[in-house]
Each structure stands twice: as structure tokens, then as C-alpha cells.
Amino acid sequence: QILELLIQRDGEFQELMKLAVDQGKIHHEMQLLEKVVEKRDSDIQQLQKQLKEAEHVLATAVYQAKEKLKSIEKARKGAISSEEIIKYAHRISASNAVCAPLTWVPGDPRRPYPTDLEMRSGLLGQMNNPSTNGVNGHLPGDALAAGRLPDVLAPQYPWQSSDMSMNMLPPNHSNDFLLEPPGHNKENEDDVEVMSTDSSSSSSDSD
């Protein structure tokens, strides 16, 4: 009986060994499948990242397209004819605003445009300097009476000629610089007074 029990137990052990081998194979297959799943998961995450980047690019492109459509619509509503642009450009070019002064020639050491130092010493540069007299609209009385800007505010450019840099004469002192006409002397004034006296006396006699 003991021998039969041993044989029976050995048969059971053999079956359990076969089952263990089968389970080992299954476990190995499960490990392989887990590796495949991890690889597929990594691929899915990479694709998800690419999809997010593509979504961001598409959203940016759509936004820019909408902005361009708005700009096009705005340009259509406020369209300006080419003739008006040409007229405006001709007006600008006619005022020497886009070219050098007429007195400037190639080889001239002076620059055909004001330098930074000259711009700072001009009217706009002095207006930004609070320590300069005549700022904020308060000019010296002599300058206002003379109808000119003070020297500190007068723009100085190298191409300005002497006649352009002359200050304007005040209206109330214009007679000081007028030349007397020929023959205008004391004797002529006496003759005029005598003639006016004679004419007044003759008119009184006729009355």
C-alpha cells in the first residue's frame, strides 16, 4: 500500500511539474506582451505629443488667417486710389522734404541732413530740455516783440545761408533801418509846411 501511495504521489508531482512548466511559458509570454505594451504606449505618447504640436500650429495658422482676412476686409473698405498716393508723394517731394538742400553738392563736407547734435540743438530738442529758457511756450519778451525765436531755440543747420539765418525785424522798429529818399531834408520839409500854410489861408479867404 505504501508503494502504491508513493507511485500515486509521484504521478501527482509529475502533473504539477507539467503545470508549472506550462505556467512558466505563459509567464514568459506575458512578459513579452508587457514589453510590447510599453512600446506601444511610448508610441502613443509620442503621437499624442505630435498631435498637440500640430494642433498648436493649426490654431496659430487659423488665427493668422483670420487676422489677414480682417486686414483685407479693412483695406477694401478704406481703399485709396493710386492717383491720390502719387499726388501726395509729389507734394512731399516738391517740398524738398525727402532730399538734400539745393545748395548741397557731392563732395560738400557738410552733411545733406541734420546730424544728431544739430537735431538736439534745434527747437524740438530744446523743448525737451526743461532748463532752457523759453520752454513750455514762454519766450523772452524781446524775442516775442521782435517776432523771432531766441538764439537758444533757433535751429542751426550747416547748409543755412546767412540771409536765411537773419532774424526778422520787429514791426515797431522797421523805420529805423529805412533809407531816406533822395532830397528828403530840412529844406523840403520847410517848403511843404509853407505850401500847406498857403493852401489853408487861401481856403479861409474863399470862405
From TrEMBL:
Belongs to the Mediator complex subunit 4 family. Residues 30-64 form a coiled coil. Its main location: nucleus. Residues 196-207 have a biased composition (Low complexity). This is Mediator of RNA polymerase II transcription subunit 4. Component of the Mediator complex, a coactivator involved in the regulated transcription of nearly all RNA polymerase II-dependent genes. Mediator functions as a bridge to convey information from gene-specific regulatory proteins to the basal RNA polymerase II transcription machinery. Mediator is recruited to promoters by direct interactions with regulatory proteins and serves as a scaffold for the assembly of a functional preinitiation complex with RNA polymerase II and the general transcription factors. One of its GO terms (biological process) is regulation of transcription by RNA polymerase II. The keyword DNA-binding does not apply. Component of the Mediator complex. Keywords: Activator, Coiled coil, Nucleus, Transcription, Transcription regulation. One of its GO terms (cellular component) is core mediator complex. InterPro entries: Mediator_Med4. GO terms for molecular function: transcription coregulator activity. PANTHER family: MEDIATOR OF RNA POLYMERASE II TRANSCRIPTION SUBUNIT 4 (PTHR13208). It comes from Tinamus guttatus (White-throated tinamou). It is found in: Nucleus. Residues 163-207 are annotated as: Disordered. It comes from the Eukaryota.
